[in-house]
From TrEMBL, chain B:
Organism: Pontibacter saemangeumensis
Key word Signal present: yes
Range of residues in the leader sequence: 1-22
Protein name (record): Pitrilysin family protein
This protein's UniProt keywords: Signal
Taxonomic lineage: Bacteria, Pseudomonadati, Bacteroidota, Cytophagia, Cytophagales
Length: 487, 468
């Protein structure tokens, strides 16, 4: 059992998330063990001349206690006494890109099955248990993991640990339950994609066009026929293959006593047997050497739209952090280059959105090839070529004029603030999300406090190198929506 | 306590290594509830009538600031549908001393954001920043509020963006359904206006924009809310120094709507639609009414939560839909209840039948103590969640201010939720949610749903009146 406790700076990332439906996303967190104070981090502040906010920022630390049970379950505890609330999140290390090849959409369908009954909680009973204890819950399937989380009054922590352990032990699903959820999921696809203008654009569409490896490039929501073809045996097999404690992380954030929480975690999770988890398939994408352009007809859309996407540098590489800052400069906020060029100066659109892992997460919570993507809806009198020309022009400007320390500092301030938003998102959930994915993918949830230092290592030279290598047109996919409905 | 449900074991595919057919376990109850008190606030009023509320909250070094002005679509003239949106849009285009780009750059240096949105009753200037920039952000937002440049050069672009946004909204089945629903309930009030079309938007002039701002904006209609981590003394000073000179302007005034209750059905054809988008509902009480809390509890139990009866029925039992929900929409001194669902086309009639069945069942039979207690706990839990983020806190305070509600609306809310009895839930449902009085809007493939809808309507007419 390893326990790490780390201090350090916090950064911010992008407020881009789509899969969760709880609505409220402004939140606040704190911790009693590390109250913000000007302390031993003054030295770090001096690293960034012109950034007067570093001292406060550096002092804001998130407590992280990390250990692993004998059965392999990773556990992260992060107390926060701001409100009498506790968030319990279980992340399984299986996302939609790794689902079986003849069962598109299965990872997400399976997520629904986790609410359909376990050993001690029948159908609807998990949901009822959370609600009648004053809490909310949800699940979500992403590229590389599947989330289950409950936000409950603080004194109900034990209840939720018991319930999450219960469904980690095993499911009890009937054919009726499966048939029911096949209906629900097909309706989900209809309401979010098939009956909506711009349904699936660009979040579901772009990976299918930009990527070449099936794992990264298939329909993650699933073809309706594949959803229909799923059997109880598929459900059983998927659970056995991926839903073992050694393929998961449990995160607790909020107002609780860590010693007591550990005791409950031991009591309820320790006896769950580990499983044999298959090796991750090869997710590698070939290096793209030629620009790709695609057009998709949309019979419900009434205005054209355009999305662009560039393959990202490898996660956690120096260039990856540089791309995080380039995203801040080019795409985030009204001051960003693309907002200024496309919205403010030319009026091509009212807004341009996007980011890294846009609409399905953020730049931290994935584990494989990824895209930096942007998109906009525009009028018919603006051509796709003129939009792409602006994109190229803004990137070229950065390349030709160079990126000085002042611009880097601006990007760092924006980055830090957006990370605060991320860790504040939806009560304890935003914080739990980073802790969980850093535990799963990096075996180091304390990275949550180390991010700003990584971004600070980025130099103007590295920014230039990253622009040349990754923001080249030949690394780009452009997807155009051809609208077929009347305005 | 957990109820053991009866499932035929032979129908189960139990596939856990640790499955035992022994007696089921029940969840641990948990400990004793921790106290929750609403975060303390500091309020002050400037001589010009502007009210400010400061709520220090949390430890994340950010501050959220909302400047909310009672000037919205309700204040537009008869032929000015959407003018308030144009005013809000053009206010983002700079002040007499700063261009839009300069504002964007200044906000970015604070690690912040600043945006303006317009609702039916109010215009929201919303900002956030790293804590140390709070006072600077207040000054910037005060400038945006008091000194808009309304640059003529940007009017066409703002109008064009607004037209595009409205066109996109009109293409969505949910927006279409809601638009018709509001129009049916509020025919003689701005709440019932449909989304402005290109022609209406094209007609707006800069003079109209300036005139609307002059007539509708002022300190008496403005509330400033600050929540998050900040220095209260500095913040009060910043608000006082930057907003004391704002002209007092008009008194608060929102025309009270008189909603219409009419058992009508409106169908909008969406050929080939794989789903029907349903809105079914009617006018109810406003938040100040004593029945509001019981109705809210009834709504939560009936369709307003994941575990609610309607959702359990048409989603978790029948699989007709993904995200059905019922809710009470609060308007100024008015309100309406509705159930919304996107249901699979061939089950349009069945879905409506089940929704009405659940409403009638709750009208006729009081829920069990246990079911009610569960939903009371849920609502009490949501109350804590709603008051546990800077944005949520501001939302709650603005709700009180907009609807002229006393402080006790919040401080007694949990107590009031728990005071509701099972009989009250069914009586309130019977009193306010009579399906025969409901307006039904369906956006779907007429060819496939006409017959289903006719049959549903005939059945509804034949139903005996609900008696309490």
């Amino acid at each position: 059992m390893t326990t790490r406790r780390i201090r350090l700076h916090v950064l911010r990332n992008f407020l881009l998330y789509a899969g969760l439906s709880l609505g409220l996303n402004l939140s606040s967190c704190s911790q009693k063990s590390a109250p913000p104070a000007i302390s031993d981090v003054q030295a770090d502040a001096s690293v960034a001349p012109g950034d007067s906010t570093s001292a406060d920022a550096a002092a804001f630390q998130i407590p992280v206690e990390y250990y692993t049970l004998d059965n392999g379950l990773k556990v992260v505890l992060s107390p926060d006494e701001t409100a009498p609330i506790v968030t319990v999140a279980v992340y399984y290390n299986i996302g939609f890109r790794n689902e079986p090849k003849d069962r598109t959409g299965f990872a997400h369908l399976f997520e629904h099955m986790m609410f359909q009954g376990s050993e001690n909680l029948g159908k609807m009973e998990f949901i009822d248990l959370v609600q009648k204890n004053g809490g909310v819950l949800n699940g979500s399937t992403r590229f590389d993991f599947t989330i289950y989380f409950d936000i409950v009054p603080a004194h109900k922590l034990e209840t939720m640990l018991w319930a999450e352990a219960d469904r980690m032990k095993g499911l009890k699903i009937t054919q009726d339950n499966l048939t029911n959820q096949q209906g629900v999921v097909k309706n989900e696809v209809k309401v979010n994609v098939l009956n909506q203008p711009y349904g699936g654009f660009p979040w579901l569409d772009m990976p299918q066009y930009a990527n070449k490896n099936w794992y990264n490039a298939h329909n993650f929501y699933g073809d309706l026929e594949d959803l229909d073809a799923a059997t109880l045996e598929d459900v059983q097999s998927f659970f056995h293959t991926f839903y073992s404690p050694n393929n998961a992380v449990l995160v607790v954030v909020g107002d609780f006593e860590p010693a007591q929480a550990k005791q409950w975690v031991q009591q309820y999770f320790a006896a769950i047997p580990s499983g044999t988890v298959p090796a991750t398939p090869n997710l590698t994408e070939p290096v793209q050497e030629k620009e790709q352009r695609f057009t998709k007809d949309d019979k419900l859309a009434n205005k054209p739209a355009l999305a662009f996407a560039y393959h990202m540098p490898v996660r956690n590489s120096p260039e990856y952090y540089a791309m995080g800052l380039l995203d801040q400069i080019l795409l985030q906020g009204n001051d960003s280059r693309l907002h200024q060029a496309l919205v403010q100066e030319r009026g091509y659109t009212g807004s341009v959105g996007g980011g890294i892992n846009a609409e399905l997460g953020n730049m931290y919570n994935y584990n494989g090839p990824m895209l930096w993507m942007g998109s906009l809806v525009h009028d018919k009198n603006v051509s796709a070529d003129s939009i792409v020309a602006v994109l190229d022009q803004e990137i070229r400007k950065l390349q030709e004029n160079g990126i000085d320390q002042e611009l880097l500092d601006l990007a760092l301030v924006k980055m830090r603030s957006s990370l605060y938003d991320q860790v504040s998102q939806m009560y304890g959930f935003g914080r739990a999300d980073l802790l969980a994915t850093f535990a799963l993918f990096d075996d180091n949830p304390a990275r949550i406090n180390e991010l700003e230092a990584e971004f600070r290592k980025v130099t103007p030279e590295l920014m230039q190198k990253t622009i040349s290598e990754y923001l080249r047109p030949t690394n780009r996919t452009v997807l155009i929506i051809n609208p077929q409905a009347q305005s | 306590m957990k109820k053991i449900i009866s499932i035929s074991l032979s129908a189960l595919l139990a596939f856990s290594a640790s499955v035992a057919t022994a007696q089921q376990q029940t969840p641990p109850e948990g400990g004793t509830p921790k106290d929750f008190t609403l975060p303390a606030k500091q309020e002050f009023t400037l001589p010009n009538g502007l009210e400010a509320t400061l709520v220090p909250y949390g430890e994340v070094p950010k501050v959220t600031i909302s400047v909310i002005v009672e000037a919205g679509n309700v204040h537009e003239g008869q032929d000015q549908n959407g003018l308030a949106d144009i005013v809000g849009g053009l206010m983002e285009e700079g002040t007499t001393t700063r261009s839009a780009t300069e504002i964007a750059d200044a906000v970015a240096r604070m690690g912040g954001s600043l945006s303006i949105s317009v609702g039916p009753n109010q215009t929201y200037i919303s900002g956030d920043a790293l804590s140390e920039y709070g006072p600077e952000l207040v000054a910037l937002m005060a400038d945006v509020l008091q000194n808009p440049a309304f640059p003529a050069s940007e009017l066409e672009r703002i109008k064009n963006d607004f037209k595009r946004r409205m066109n996109l909204a009109r293409a969505q089945p949910g927006t279409q359904a809601n638009e018709k629903f509001r129009a049916a309930l509020y025919p003689n009030h701005p709440y019932g206006r449909e989304l402005p079309d290109d022609k209406q938007i094209n007609a707006f002039t800069l003079e109209q924009v300036q005139d609307f701002y002059q007539k509708q904006f002022g300190a008496k209609r403005t509330n400033v809310y600050v929540a998050g981590k900040f220095d209260s003394g500095e913040m009060k000073e910043a608000i006082t120094s930057s907003l004391s000179e704002f002209r007092a302007g008009p008194e608060s005034s929102i025309p009270v709507a008189k909603p219409v209750t009419k058992g009508d059905m409106i169908v909008i054809d969406r050929p080939g639609a794989p789903q029907s988008t349903i809105v079914l509902g009617l006018p109810v009480v406003d938040p100040a009414h004593p029945d509001y809390v019981p109705l809210n509890v009834a709504n939560s139990l009936l369709g307003g939560s994941f575990g609610s009866r309607i959702t359990s029925n048409i989603r978790e039992d029948k699989g007709y839909t993904y995200s059905p929900y019922s809710s009470i929409s609060t308007r100024y001194k008015a309100g309406d209840w509705s159930e919304s669902a996107d249901v699979t086309t061939e089950h349009t009639g069945n879905s409506l039948r089940e929704i009405v069945y659940e409403i009638n069942r709750l009208s006729k039979e009081a829920p069990s103590e246990e079911e009610l207690e569960g939903i009371q706990n849920y609502e009490a839990g949501l109350f804590v969640l709603r008051n546990s983020t800077p944005g949520g806190i501001i939302g709650q305070l603005n709700f009180l201010d907009l609807h002229d509600l006393p402080e006790s609306f919040l401080t007694n809310q949990v107590q009031n939720i728990y005071a509701v009895t099972p009989e009250q839930v069914s009586e309130t449902t019977a009193k306010y949610l009579n399906p025969k009085d409901m307006t039904l809007v369906v956006v779907g493939d007429k060819k496939q749903i006409d017959k289903q809808l006719r049959q549903f309507q005939q059945e509804l007419k034949k139903q005996a009146p609900v008696t309490q």
